[in-house]
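During the no-cost extension, the postdoctoral fellow (Dr. R.K.) reprocessed legacy sequence entries with the updated structure-token encoder. One reprocessed record is reproduced below for audit purposes.
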Amino acid sequence: MKKKVALVTGGLSGEAQISYKSAVTVGNNLDRNKYDVYTIDINPTGWWYENKAGVKSLVNRDDFSVVTDSGKVNFDVVLLCIHGTPGEDGKLQGYFDMIGLPYTSCDAATSALTMNKRFTVAVAAFSGIHVAKSMHLFRHTPVTTEHILQQISLPVFVKPNSGGSSIGMSKVADANMLQSALTKAFNEDSQILVEEFISGREFTIGVFKQGTEMVVLPITEITTHNEFFDFEAKYQGKSVETTPALIDDDLQSKLTNAAKQVYEILNCRGVVRIDFIYNSEQQKPYMLEVNTVPGQSEASVIPQQVKAMGMSLMEFYSLVVEQAINGNK
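Re-encoded structure tokens follow.
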């Protein structure tokens, strides 16, 4: 008997536009011989199921069920494709835990932690992972640019503490530009991160579990024509993503081991993407951030890495779904 999968997309942040694109890729590659797939759109107007005829109905939040022409549908598993709140920050995870419904991402605690960039790097650093020096700023406690520059030297990155897709992020090399970068980031979040610039090669690495085995996908190196890997570079063709990365065995080993260590330290589940800068002078990988619901659109890295591994997306998403049902217990 086919399992019933709720493919959850949308969201309440600026990343919703990416979530819809991710859901298209995932939905097109879910094995319909194994799964009946129901797309659920969570947006500011409500939680909606849309049937094949285009008729929308509200999801019953008591048990996350929907009503179709054939009757009530209770799901076997949730496949999360929401980037940002409430699908990547632990809110939905906590709800699904309370009603006993399996889902494909990290648990509520890890999701909430990794959504907070400052807390993520603090936990990683405590466990021996190399991270950049940073300051955690709050809108309700203003800090002068002079104080910031006494703590961290230019150039720096300024970014919202929560959120992704590089929305609200700036690279600042001129002290006169710092205040505008702070304002831009605070427009996206009440907490922001000012982080020292680490020079080096940028890599991003997908990791997932297959049974009890931790699997590292082929590593991607990112080079961009822009100042950094911003929204335009990520989604509008202003970057070059080389998968698998052209690196020697030593660097491959360092990055792979670091990715596995981060996945284990943060108690990750499902497929996670971890970003690193490799500083060649120090010969160390520095962890930048962790994405617990990484993008799955055609422009995204994870589908590239899956294909580079020699696996079809249909096979990959089947593994992710079955791991959620059977392995996350």
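The chain has three domains: 3-105, 112-131+199-327, 134-196. Residues 134-196 form a domain with the Dna Ligase; domain 1 fold (CATH 3.30.1490.20). The remaining legacy entries will be reprocessed before the final report is submitted.
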